């Protein structure tokens, strides 16, 4: 099965009719995971690759859902036939995480007892919860060991957590534009984003669906701010500079500078399409991620039982999860004598680089994946 | 007159009963400037120093208004008897800028024709407008030439603009933690801040006073976000790290991390005390500041007629106006053979360092001011 950017792919919803206890203590009575697969699982189930998504991603990684789809999946440049994560070789699974808003059980899904959307009642989920739910997903497909778990940003955190929680189940982890934990500044930005949403009068304590409204204002502000942190300072300067929309200053609060138009557009688009409760819990999963915490803040200790080999990639202009953060992980892996390759890519794309096509990056993933035996 | 941190100082409101045309084309029929002075103007008027404030500053630079005042003026560590800007030597003027909300004519002041607050009807002001209003202020005091114009951040921009617009009126300019224009990222953050305020349902197009309300939610979000950009990434890490408020994660959206408590406190305090319309126009004055623009984006050309000598100071961990931005100004001054001293201070305090007491910084200002003849 050849997978190209125009291949029509069909997501599937996989039901898990079992109680699922979360790290918070809450228990989901059952849950669904929305999934897309590409390629074919081989007989020995040795060619399975899990793609973990970041804050606003989902299961739709590659191909198109309809012939008229404007865009392919979010990592279509990385996943497909002949692409760095080659679906002619690998069986690739993309999923929407638990708590997401793209079909998996989350705040927008119906509570099995009430029949109405969970909304604010959906419990918080952690990276560890996601990994355990992904383990059940692996079992559903008869996969006992991933050839690789791959992710950028929050997705890379899931890849890392997999190697810690299920060491024997991951041969390779690709941790891209990620960090072993958030910095104080990362947490601070997340809290401002959440406060923008929570204080929006349309938020209604998270139960906005029951009020037939959406906290779009807050979600828009959160995304605009977030978007700035995804872009390199120099990159955004090169792209927009101080370019004006009109010939001169307007002396008003409409759009003066092109960068304002761009940011507001990004904010509007996101606020129209994404769920605020999901955004909140995703940022919280980021804040809470800290695998070293259970080991007296010793990352080496947290990694001591890891069996996977690592490819870690950082981007020079990423100031959200700067290369220094990747290097923390690399150093800890080296100190525990794990196998790790590290690539630091010169890029103007900031944190967003993990979704872009800077060639040393794409080449590094391709070479690494080529060398994985199946 | 000795000025210490406990000296009781009394602001004065100075009325300018004359039409004042703004860069936008709008005309103020009259205006007031709220002012505080420290020290004594000498007979030759050669010892006058103007302190220009930043985004949220005002005229209250040093001393206290009441014996029970909790805090002294915002630059009390810099201005006073025996302090780096020594009021035993200099006659120092602090003012609240036009458009401010601390007593000068601005959105919260009464429109002379209607008697009600200007609100959204207050026109936008620019750094050039401020400098022209400060020129009238100088004339009011009989000052034809400042010994020095001093400011940090947006205040530094005013000092720079003074040297360009009135070259013969400034002997020394101290431009601290500033930039010759905003970067794209700076503008982007400002626009998110403004959008947070403007989309707050309590904003009412800026006429919130008429609706007996205030857009506190939006102003709070704007300030929380702004505050992150004032702090060094490493500094905030050192101060708060991932310190929790309670022993473990709360799995809720209340405060988990100490940095959240701090930021929300800063946001609340600011939203209670500052005016939203003023915040908007201050950020716009920042965005619009670009003295090179009138000279085909050639900063050297903009500086060609400058007569003042400069002390420029940048702080290593300031990522809002990074040292590189100060160096742009320094290089342009050097290229036009102006007198400039540049000090780059190693500091953990980020942009806020200009308000702090890192000793090489304080010492540099002291030494520079000591050497100014009066």
Compact summary:
The structure is a homodimer of 374-residue chains. Chain A is of the alpha/beta class.
Overview of this structure, please?
- Two copies of one chain form a homodimer.
- The first copy, chain A, is an alpha/beta fold.
- Chain A has two domains: 12-181 and 291-370, Rossmann fold; 187-283, Rna Polymerase Sigma Factor, Chain: A.
- Chain A is 33% helix and 14% strand.
- Chain A contains ten helices and twelve strands.
- In chain A, the strands form three sheets. Chain A has an eight-stranded mixed beta sheet, sandwiched between helices. Chain A has a two-stranded antiparallel sheet with strand order 2-3.
- In chain A, helix 3 (184-198) packs antiparallel against helix 4, helix 3 (184-198) packs antiparallel against helix 7 (276-288) and helix 4 crosses helix 6.
- Chain A is globular, with a radius of gyration of 20 Å.
- The relative contact order of chain A is 0.13.
- Chains A and B meet through helix 3, helix 4, helix 5, helix 6 and helix 7 of A and helix 3, helix 4, helix 5, helix 6 and helix 7 of B.
Number of helices of chain A: 10
Query: Any idea what the CATH architecture of the largest domain in chain A is?
Result: 3-Layer(aba) Sandwich
Helix content of chain A: 25-40%
Which chain pair has the greatest contact?
A-B, 52 and 52 residues
Structural class of chain A: alpha/beta
């Amino acid at each position: 099965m050849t997978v190209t950017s125009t291949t029509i792919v069909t997501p599937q919803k996989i039901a898990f009719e079992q109680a699922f206890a979360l790290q918070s203590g809450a228990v989901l009575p059952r849950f669904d995971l929305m999934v897309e697969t590409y390629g074919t699982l081989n007989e020995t189930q040795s060619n399975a690759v899990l793609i973990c998504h970041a804050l606003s991603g989902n299961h739709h990684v590659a191909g198109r859902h309809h012939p008229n789809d404007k865009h392919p999946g979010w990592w279509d440049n990385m996943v497909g036939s002949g692409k760095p994560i080659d679906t002619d070789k690998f069986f690739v699974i993309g999923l929407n995480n638990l708590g997401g808003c793209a079909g998996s059980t989350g705040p927008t899904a119906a509570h099995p007892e009430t029949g109405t959307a969970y909304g604010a009642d959906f419990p918080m989920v952690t990276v560890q919860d996601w990994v355990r739910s992904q383990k059940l997903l692996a079992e559903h497909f008869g996969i006992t060991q991933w050839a690789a778990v791959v992710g950028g940003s929050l997705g890379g955190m899931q890849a890392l957590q997999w190697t810690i929680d299920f060491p024997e189940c991951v041969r390779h982890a690709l941790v891209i534009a990620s960090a072993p934990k958030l910095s104080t500044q990362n947490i601070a930005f997340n809290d401002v984003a959440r406060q923008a949403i929570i204080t929006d009068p349309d938020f209604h304590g998270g139960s906005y669906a029951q009020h037939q409204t959406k906290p779009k204002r807050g979600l828009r502000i959160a995304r605009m701010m977030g978007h700035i942190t995804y872009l390199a300072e120099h990159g955004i300067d090169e792209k927009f500079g101080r370019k004006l929309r009109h010939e001169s200053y307007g002396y008003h609060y409409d759009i003066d500078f092109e960068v304002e138009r761009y940011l507001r557009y990004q904010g509007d688009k996101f606020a129209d399409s994404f769920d605020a409760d999901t955004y909140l819990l995703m940022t919280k999963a980021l804040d809470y991620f800290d695998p070293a915490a259970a080991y007296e803040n010793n990352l080496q200790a947290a990694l001591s039982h890891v069996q996977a080999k690592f490819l870690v990639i950082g981007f020079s202009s990423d100031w959200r999860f700067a290369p220094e953060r990747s290097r923390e992980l690399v150093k800890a892996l080296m100190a525990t004598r794990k196998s790790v390759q590290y690539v630091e890519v010169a890029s103007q794309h900031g944190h967003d680089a993990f979704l872009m096509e800077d060639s040393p990056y794409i080449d590094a993933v391709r070479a690494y994946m080529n060398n994985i035996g199946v």
